[in-house]
């Protein structure tokens, strides 16, 4: 282990769920407005993951009022209060950028079935 990995290992949260591209997730974000703090939920599809260790990020895309909205979240950010995986998607790509051009039911991702 090199020196950078030793320093970064302090910031990695062990209780984070396994997050894969194609998953539908709910990201609970701490928002500070003025003196008030609240939690806002951003639910969408994980279309990309990038980086590794404490620098890992993931991109979540959702449709809000007919407009596509994407946010990039650092996986181990202190601003993330909780991360829930709603469903696992069955995809064969590491990046799902092609979904940006899809409309309607073509935008849907099949759900991964459990092996019996």
TrEMBL record:
Domain of life assignment: Bacteria
Name the UniProt record assigns to this protein: Large ribosomal subunit protein bL19
Purpose of the protein: This protein is located at the 30S-50S ribosomal subunit interface and may play a role in the structure and function of the aminoacyl-tRNA binding site.
UniProt keyword terms in alphabetical order: Ribonucleoprotein, Ribosomal protein
GO molecular function, one term: structural constituent of ribosome
PANTHER family: LARGE RIBOSOMAL SUBUNIT PROTEIN BL19M, RIBOSOMAL PROTEIN L19
Family: Belongs to the bacterial ribosomal protein bL19 family.
Alphabetized Pfam families for the sequence: Ribosomal_L19 (PF01245)
Gene responsible for this protein: rplS
One GO cellular component term noted in the UniProt record for this chain: cytosolic large ribosomal subunit
Entry keyword Ribosomal protein: yes
One example of a Gene Ontology biological process annotation: translation
Organism: Candidatus Cryosericum septentrionale
């Amino acid at each position: 282990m090199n020196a950078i990995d030793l320093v970064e290992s302090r910031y990695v949260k062990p209780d984070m769920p396994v997050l894969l591209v194609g998953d539908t997730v709910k990201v609970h974000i701490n928002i500070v407005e003025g003196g008030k703090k609240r939690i806002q939920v951003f639910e969408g599809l994980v279309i990309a993951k990038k980086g590794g260790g404490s620098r890992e990020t993931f991109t979540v895309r959702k449709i809000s009022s007919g407009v596509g909205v994407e946010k990039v979240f650092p996986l181990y950010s202190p601003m993330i209060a909780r991360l829930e995986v709603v469903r696992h998607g069955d995809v064969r790509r590491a990046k799902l950028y092609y979904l940006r051009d899809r409309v309607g039911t073509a935008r849907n991702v099949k759900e991964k079935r459990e092996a019996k």
